[in-house]
Amino acid sequence: MVGEKSSAGGHQALPERYDLCEEGYALYVEGLRLFVTPTVALLVDTRNDVLVTHGVPSTVRAELDALRAFGGHGLPRDVSECVLVEGAPPVDLLNRALGSREALLEILRDLGRQNPPEAARIMREAIGRAASAAARRRRRSDNP
């Protein structure tokens, strides 16, 4: 849905960036303002440390609900490994997280601190899984 979410997983065809404005976060794609939202949501595949999608929280939540409804049948990612976080991160960190795993993990930590205790626990677990997966990948690449 153009104007409410942005898919970041896989190939990113258009340069995306958020700017702060009076109403909140404005997403621009190639200079075109797509939407404004007071907070942003990030759907993260913690198994692969990949940003699946981002945008208006209600739209990203609806996309996650749709993925769960499919129960993983024929989907390329395991939905149980996806985590949805919402909040108001620093815009420079948000923009870096669109293309950097390190910034994505940092934003997960920051948003985890902004969320209630249960969300923070879920985030700590997700970050732990992501860090373990990254360590396994490094070990495999060091020992071909």
Structural write-up:
By secondary structure, the chain is an alpha+beta fold. It has one domain (40-142). 42% of the residues lie in helices and 27% in strands. It has helices at 57-70, 91-97, 101-114, 117-142, and strands at 5-7, 16-21, 24-29, 32-37, 40-45, 50-55, 82-87. It has a four-stranded antiparallel sheet, sandwiched between helices. The protein has a three-stranded antiparallel sheet with strand order 2-3-4. A hairpin with a 2-residue loop joins β2 and β3. 25% of the residues are buried.
Question: How is this fold's topology laid out?
Answer:
Blueprint: E1 5-7, E2 16-21, E3 24-29, E4 32-37, E5 40-45, E6 50-55, H1 57-70, E7 82-87, H2 91-97, H3 101-114, H4 117-142
Antiparallel strand pairs: 1-6, 2-3, 3-4, 5-6, 5-7
Helix pairs in contact: 2-3, 3-4
Uncertain spans:
7-13
Number of helices: 4
Percent of residues in β-strands: 25-35%
Q: How confident overall, as mean pLDDT?
A: 78
Tell me the strand order in the biggest sheet.
Answer: 1-6-5-7
Largest sheet: 4 strands, antiparallel
The helix-and-strand class reads: alpha+beta
Assembly type of the shown chains? single chain
Elements, N to C (H/E): EEEEEEHEHHH
Number of strands: 7
**How many independent structural domains?**
1
- What's the overall geometry? globular
Rg measurement, Å: 15 Å
Helix content: 40-55%
> Distance between termini?
42 Å
